[in-house]
Design a protein that fits this description.
about 100 residues; Monooxygenase; 5 helices; elongated
């Protein structure tokens, strides 16, 4: 029973982490503006998910690898959006 609760907590935590990136990515894509998004924060976040994924792989903890890989993909997408739309919609229109 305790193992089921622990796994459920881990699954909910992973789901919350993954879903937390979606509103930011959607907002950037909708507005074509990432000027207010912190580049440093996403650089550190992507680095953290790379390290967590590696840590999980070294431990052979595949749920940890899976959750952090998906989170890494979301964080990397947000980082790409930051780079792509860094100057905002006005700069994109001027091009």
């Amino acid at each position: 029973m305790a193992s089921l609760i622990i796994n459920a907590i881990g699954a909910v935590a992973a789901g919350c982490t993954i879903v937390s990136f979606i509103p930011q990515i959607a907002k950037i894509l909708r507005e074509r503006d990432a000027s207010a998004v912190s580049l440093r924060m996403y650089l550190f976040t992507v680095t953290a998910f790379v390290l967590w994924t590696l840590y999980g792989a070294l431990l052979k903890a595949w749920p940890l690898v899976a959750a952090n890989s998906v989170s890494l993909a979301c964080a990397a997408t947000a980082l790409w959006c930051k780079w792509r739309f860094r100057d905002g919609a006005q700069a994109a229109k001027a091009r």
